[in-house]
């Protein structure tokens, strides 16, 4: 694809292409950035389309323009279905109405067959991308330190400076989590995106290489808690639960076997900063009376104490 025109226009077209590849902009912003008129921007957009560039525009006014990546051809059915599932998860997950989420979904949907593309609703969002998400994402992608203010539940906002090691969506609640090593500390810690109250990139302060392997840190996690601190929990399920517990391999599963008519399952459960397997305990609670905690004794005691507290609080009502 070429943009061989007059030298001045050709240089402007090349700069326009770079802008459209970076983000979506309205014609006023593009004209200001390129020191030309909006009419010239519209002519340039028509020219790019005529030469084969995939210039897309948003449906809501003022229209914003961007370049969608070129399709690499019709995907095979398995890839298409996986892409469709990822798009649906992205749609459900978006923490706020976000033009960046909308644009990412629109670009990915271009690779889907028409039948599957029709099943991905891509309504124009009413809001904009949260600034903190944009700031943290840019800091991670460009390897820059970040100054941030973070508020834990029930606590006061605390300022800090750190380096981003990773960003991950919790498989349980589909919320963003950010893994940061504070300056002056050795451990990478987990931060919930929604609890950041402010974040600013240090554009001239580059992060060191951090040793963070998501396969080791997160693949065994039930939600977002991973790492090296864990305990082994043994559970026993009665016959009526077998159809719902035996059909898959669970995160951190060590062993499984039939115990008469019961099913015995052993899991390696990550511990939080209070040395509690909170994410696995939440899953255990969901089984109600259809599971028994066999070991370790301290986890069994926690499980029984919660059951007793539930009975004491509500049995007399």
Short structural summary:
This protein has 317 residues and is α+β, with helices and mostly antiparallel strands. It has helices at 7-22, 27-34, 38-50, 77-93, 99-109, 114-117, 131-141, 214-217, 242-245, 278-285, 297-314, and strands at residues 25-26, 55-57, 64-67, 144-150, 158-169, 176-182, 189-192, 196-206, 230-237, 253-259, 262-270, 292-295.
Q: How much is the radius of gyration in Å?
A: 26 Å
Instruction: Provide mean pLDDT, rounded.
Output: 81
Biggest sheet, open or closed, and with what strands and sense?
5 strands, antiparallel
Helix tally equals 11
Low-confidence segments, given as residue ranges, are 1-5
Shape: elongated
Helix content: 25-40%
Order the strands across the largest sheet as they lie in space: 7-6-5-4-8
Which H/E pattern describes the elements? HEHHEEHHHHEEEEEHEHEEHEH
In percent, how much strand structure appears in the residues?
Answer: 15-25%
Organism: Deinococcus wulumuqiensis
Domain WCX: 232-311
Protein name: DNA-binding transcriptional regulator
Pfam family, one: WYL
């Amino acid at each position: 694809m070429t943009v061989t025109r007059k030298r001045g226009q050709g240089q402007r077209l090349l700069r326009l292409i770079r802008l459209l590849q970076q983000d979506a902009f309205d014609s006023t912003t593009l004209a200001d950035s390129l020191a030309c008129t909006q009419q010239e921007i519209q002519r340039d957009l028509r020219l790019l389309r005529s030469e084969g560039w995939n210039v897309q525009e948003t449906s809501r006014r003022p229209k914003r323009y961007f370049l969608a990546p070129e399709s690499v051809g019709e995907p095979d059915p398995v890839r298409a279905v996986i892409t469709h599932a990822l798009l649906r998860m992205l749609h459900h997950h978006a923490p706020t109405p976000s033009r960046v989420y909308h644009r990412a979904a629109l670009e990915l949907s271009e690779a889907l067959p028409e039948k599957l593309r029709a099943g991905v609703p891509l309504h124009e969002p009413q809001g904009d991308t949260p600034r903190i998400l944009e700031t943290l994402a840019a800091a991670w992608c460009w390897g820059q330190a970040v100054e941030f203010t973070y508020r834990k539940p029930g606590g006061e906002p605390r300022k800090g400076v750190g380096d981003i090691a990773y960003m991950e969506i919790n498989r349980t609640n589909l919320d963003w989590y950010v893994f940061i090593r504070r300056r002056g500390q050795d451990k990478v810690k987990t931060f919930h995106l929604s609890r950041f109250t402010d974040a600013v990139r240090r554009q001239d302060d580059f992060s060191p290489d951090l040793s963070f392997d998501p396969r080791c840190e997160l693949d065994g996690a039930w939600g977002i808690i991973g790492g090296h601190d864990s305990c082994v929990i043994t559970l026993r399920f009665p016959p009526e639960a077998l159809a719902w517990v035996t059909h898959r391999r669970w995160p951190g599963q060590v062993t499984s076997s039939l115990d008469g008519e019961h099913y015995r399952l052993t899991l390696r459960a990550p511990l939080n900063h209070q040395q509690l397997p909170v994410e696995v305990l939440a899953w255990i609670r969901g089984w109600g009376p259809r599971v028994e905690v066999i070991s370790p004794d301290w986890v069994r005691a926690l499980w029984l104490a919660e059951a007793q507290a539930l009975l004491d609080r509500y049995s007399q009502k």
